[in-house]
Every structure is written in structure tokens, then in C-alpha cells.
Write a structure and sequence with these properties.
By secondary structure, the protein is an alpha/beta fold. Helix content is about 35%, strand content about 15%. The chain has one domain: 3-Layer(aba) Sandwich (Rossmann fold).
């Protein structure tokens, strides 16, 4: 682990949720039915749907995940790794952690080449267009998790959606890895065309974002934007490490993330013992049953006790906090899809 940390550290330095009469819903047109194809294509067992609708997003158990959520509507997770090769291995470890905790692997892997994370050198407009494609085709809005320079890129995507880099964003197909000749999608819930520009992501988190990576040419434009989160995300969490030389973060409140407007922004400081380079190395945590129980019981702001497990507890606090938010937004997205499916069925 120390050798990997040292190697990746060098690479990073280089790369930088009586009753009134009920009106009968209006009949839905054939055109609307076709436009609601994404919602109609999602098949959920009625008993599973009932369980998901009854869930408290802030109290999701391991059984909820494995026997219900994983069998229902599931949003994509777009992981964005930091630096250059082989730093992507860090976020691959996080992806394997998610799978070990019960998240469907198919909703993490890229459908084209099977990779588990995106590069921070991919165009932010391309990632924004990919988010729109997934939303249109799968109904559940994807989430984003970024590490190091990948965290900067995740925030840059939010600015793309906010119009900071132009007034048009092309839809990008992950199936063909190419731009489509359109800048609008059919919203799966309204069945109406809408631009990619202005889409709102439910959940985004970043860890170790900033510092030396802002000196890279592809990130210069983010130097004065990184800490101000636009309205194109509902809930954003920024994680910092007590002393992070690479991110140039020294627990200064001035470096906290703040909302530009309506976004819910939370700042979480991780222990100074955490490494900027290996903070997302977490696959080992999901292999320990006692640790999985602790991770699933974790609640932000509550007394959670020390991480429990037979093996290494490295990076457990970060993993627990991110996993809590992922579960929360997974439930919220799934409930939204199921409710809309029922509303459509009632109109037929």
C-alpha cells in the first residue's frame, strides 16, 4: 500500500433526496406512450416496488440493497479518476467496493468498453452529454463521484450544465462513443423535449479536488469556480483531508465548498492520516462482513463508533459517508421512477 501510495503520489504531482374528489387523469396519447419508452421499459416486480416505495432513504439496510434496490430502477454512477495512468486503479477499487456492497456492476461499468471510471482528460461537455443520454434512456439520473483531478472535472461538468462554457451541449452516446446531432433529449418524466443545458444531477461528491491539478491547461478555467457549486446539482459533498499537500488543502475554512444558489452543499473533513492518493482505495472494506454492517449502519452527524472489522479499516469513514449518500439518492431516484410508472399506468 505504501509503495502504491508513493508511486501514485509522484504521478499525481506530475499530472497534477371528508376527502375531496379525485380528478380522473387525462388520457395519454400514443405519442406520449412512445416518448415514455424509458419508463415503460423498466420492469419491477410489484412486491419489490412496494418495498422500495416504503423505504426511508436515510435508513437503508444491507437487505434493502440486495433484495430490493438492486432489483429495481438503479441510476448510473459515473466515477471520475484523477491524474494519469495508473491512478485510475484507485477509483477502480472504489467501484469494486460499490459492487461488493451490492450496487449492480452493470450500472457502474461503461457499456461500451467496460471501464469502471472516466478520465479527467475527457471533455466535460462529453460527460455532460453522456449524463443526458443515460437520463433519457434509463430515467434515473446518474450520480458522479470524483477523486483528485477527477473531482475538479466533476464540478466542471456541473458548470457545463449551467452554461458556463456555452449555450449548447450535444448529447453523447456511450454506446457509440460519439456525439449525436442534437442538443435536446426527451425528458423521460414529462415526455417533452428539453435541452441538455440546465439538467440537474441529484448527487455529486468529490475528494481531494484542487491544488496542483488546477495548474493543468484543461483545468485552468476552474481556478476561480471550483469551490462555488452551481444549481445543476441537488446535493453536493466535498471531502478534504486534514493536511493535503497535493490538493493544497490545510483545513482552511476559506477552502470550503459553497453553494452559488440552491444546491445543498456539505463539507466533510477526513482524518489527517488519510492519503490524498489512496483515499478511494476501498475494495477491501466490502470483503469484511463486520465492516459491511458498520458501513450500512453509518449515519452522518450521528455517533457511529469506530469502524469495525477483522481487516484494514483504511478509508472507512470516506467510504461510509459516500455510501450513505449513494444509497439515499438510489432510493429517491427509484421511488421517483416507480411513482411515475404508476401515474402513467393510471392514465391508460
Amino acid at each position: 500500500m505504501r509503495c502504491l501510495s508513493a508511486l501514485l503520489g509522484v504521478l499525481l504531482l506530475l499530472a497534477g433526496c371528508a376527502t375531496a374528489p379525485v380528478d380522473r387523469p387525462a388520457a395519454i396519447s400514443q405519442q406520449d406512450l412512445e416518448q415514455h419508452a424509458a419508463l415503460r421499459s423498466i420492469v419491477v416486480d410489484p412486491l419489490i416496488a412496494e418495498r422500495i416505495l416504503a423505504m426511508n432513504p436515510d435508513r437503508v439496510t444491507d437487505a434493502d440493497v440486495r433484495t430490493a434496490l438492486a432489483k429495481g430502477p438503479t441510476p448510473r454512477i459515473i466515477n471520475v479518476h484523477g491524474g494519469i495512468y495508473p491512478v485510475h486503479l484507485v477509483m477502480e477499487s472504489f467501484a469494486r467496493f460499490l459492487v461488493g456492497m451490492g450496487y449492480p456492476e452493470a450500472k457502474i461499468r461503461h457499456p461500451g468498453d467496460g471501464r469502471l471510471s472516466y478520465s479527467p482528460y475527457e471533455s466535460s461537455a462529453q460527460i455532460a452529454g453522456t449524463l443526458a443520454w443515460y437520463y433519457e434512456h434509463e430515467a434515473a439520473m446518474p450520480m458522479m463521484v470524483g477523486h483528485s483531478q477527477g473531482g475538479i472535472q466533476a464540478v466542471k461538468v456541473l458548470y457545463e450544465l449551467d452554461g458556463a462554457y456555452g449555450d449548447r451541449i450535444q448529447v453523447w452516446s456511450p454506446m457509440t462513443e460519439s456525439a449525436e446531432e442534437r442538443v435536446t433529449i426527451v425528458d423521460p418524466f414529462t415526455a417533452k423535449p428539453r435541452p441538455v443545458l440546465g439538467l440537474t444531477v441529484g448527487y455529486v461528491s468529490v475528494v481531494g479536488a484542487g491544488g496542483l491539478a488546477l495548474f493543468l491547461p484543461n483545468q485552468w478555467s476552474m481556478a476561480n469556480k471550483l469551490r462555488a457549486i452551481p444549481d445543476t446539482v441537488e446535493e453536493f459533498t466535498g471531502y478534504s483531508i486534514g493536511v493535503d499537500i497535493i490538493a493544497l488543502d490545510f483545513s482552511n475554512p476559506a477552502s470550503d465548498f459553497k453553494a452559488n444558489g440552491t444546491a445543498q452543499v456539505r463539507n466533510v473533513q477526513l482524518p489527517a492520516s488519510y492519503s490524498h492518493v489512496t483515499v478511494a482505495v476501498t475494495s477491501h472494506l466490502a470483503r469484511d462482513r463486520a465492516m459491511r454492517e458498520w458501513l450500512n449502519a453509518y449515519r452522518p452527524g450521528e455517533v457511529n463508533g469506530e469502524p469495525a472489522g477483522q481487516g484494514s479499516t483504511d478509508n472507512a469513514l470516506w467510504a461510509a459517508d459516500v455510501w450513505f449518500s449513494i444509497k439515499r439518492h438510489w432510493v429517491l431516484e427509484a421511488q421517483k421512477v416507480i411513482r411515475e410508472q404508476r401515474a402513467l399506468a393510471a392514465k391508460q
